[in-house]
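To: structure subgroup
Subject: Chain for Friday's discussion

All,

I'm putting the inputs and outputs inline so they're searchable in the archive.
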Amino acid sequence: MSKTIKQIMMREYSSRVTKASEAGSGGGVAELHDAMLISIRGVKAVDTTRLRQGLAKKNIKVTVLRNSLARKTFEGTTLAPLSELLTGSNALAYGGNSVVEVAREVVALIAKMPKVELRGAVLDGMLFKGKAGVEELSKFPTREEAVGRIVTLIVSPARNLVAQVQGPGATVVGVIKAIETKLEKGEAIAAA
């Protein structure tokens, strides 16, 4: 393969590793911070197409890599830890809301396609190796789930405080209503 072709492929990898930022008027470039490495060697073309289509519905992309070019492209990025896993036939899975979502989807699809091998994943520079690492990552909460848990933890003490205040108040209201109904019926409230 000529040097020119290699440079073109590395530019293509770089353009996929860095994506145009949607937010902001500057139209800057945002780096892809997390991704997952899978091996689709031995998977039939029809199954590969199904895998890609299933992931595309969740806005997850799969790119087959040339290991040496991917290593050079990943240098100096948060995807650099994946370089040690780049042996054999590899594909990079990325996109969705986070690599946790990618891991969940791929782990679910592997049940149908056991020939797909989980190589590893990177989340914020932390490497998760092999099938066990990726399955562990798939059990992590996504950002939205983590924010929801935090909000629940923050609101929980206030909710408990309101329940404590309302508890005795409800008892007092019950006693007052009982007195009111007795008075309406003409009964004595207490024996003198």
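Points worth raising on Friday:
The chain has two domains: 3-140, 143-192.
Residues 143-185 form the longest helix (43 residues).

D.
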